[in-house]
Amino acid sequence: xxxxxxxxxxxxxxxxxxxxxxxTCLLFSKDAQSWDAAEGHCRLFGKAYLAAVETAEKMKFIExxxxxxxxxxxxxxxxxxxxxxxxxxxxxxxxxxNWGPNEPDDxxxxxxxxxVLAFNETIAWxxxxxxxxxxxxxxxx
Length: 141
Fold this sequence. Notes:
Layout: E1 19-21, E2 24-28, H1 35-43, E3 49-50, H2 56-66, E4 72-77, E5 86-87, E6 113-119, E7 122-128, E8 135-140
InterPro entries: C-type_lectin-like (IPR001304), C-type_lectin-like/link_sf (IPR016186), C-type_lectin/snaclec_domain (IPR050111), C-type_lectin_CS (IPR018378), CTDL_fold (IPR016187)
Protein name: C-type lectin domain-containing protein
Pfam families: Lectin_C
């Protein structure tokens, strides 16, 4: 008697190596860059930019992937006005926050870029020097 094997075909609107999330695509980089270099690399993909995390649901999706990866840049910074964090994608201030313990801390007055990393068992946000080299998450609609 033969066996039946089920095959599911998934049609993704995302390019190869990108991960689909709702109506966007996310790329988790395989190289570490400064925040500005990471943003420039995302722009090479056309309409892509460093990822904006505007909801808890999207953060949970990213958390599940980052549990096996390293810390990554996200697309917000407070470069113009200290403490006024804005998404590069829209220019709007953050309305959803996922800061880690004692973050943002702006050590030495030079931490103006947003990263996501593990605080013990929790994946959360922290600020970092934009010159630091980290992996990054690109996003495109």
